[in-house]
Amino acid sequence: MNSWQAAWHQTTTPVVVRRRRDSLRIRLPYDPANRKFLRNGRRSEPRWVRDKGWWEIPRAWFNDFIDRALEHYGRVYVIQPYTQEKCAPACLNAQGHICECSCMGANHGMGNDGTWFEVSETFAFRWSDTDLACRLLVRRAI
Fold first, then answer.
1. Which residues make beta-bridge pairs with 78?
2. What is the structure's pLDDT at 73?
C-alpha cells in the first residue's frame, strides 16, 4: 500500500485530496458536526458521497479547510498530483543516512536509473505520469 493509500484509509486524521480540476475530496474522523465544520457558514453545502465515504467541497475552500483542520485536529494529510520530481545527484548517489534534499530522503542513495535528467551537480529532475504525493501537515506549537 502506498503512503497516500495508507493516509486515505486511516480514520483518525483528516485527509484532503486535491485533484487537478475537480472538487476536493475530504475524509474526516466521524463527528455528527462534520457538515457544519466543512460548511463554515458558507451559502453552499458540502456534498456527502455516501457510497464512497467522503465529502466533496469546492476547490476554492482548500486553504481555509487546511487552516481550520490544523486548528481543530492539529494535523491533516494532503494528497495531490505531481508530475515533476526534483532531487540532486549528491542525494541520488549518497552513501550514509543524512539527507537535506527536497525529496526528503525518498531518493536518497537510490542512484540514477536513467530517468533523472541531471542539470548540474546540485539539481536533477524527472517527469512522470501523474502520480500522487502525500504529506502530513502538523500545526506549529505556539
1. 16, 135
2. 96
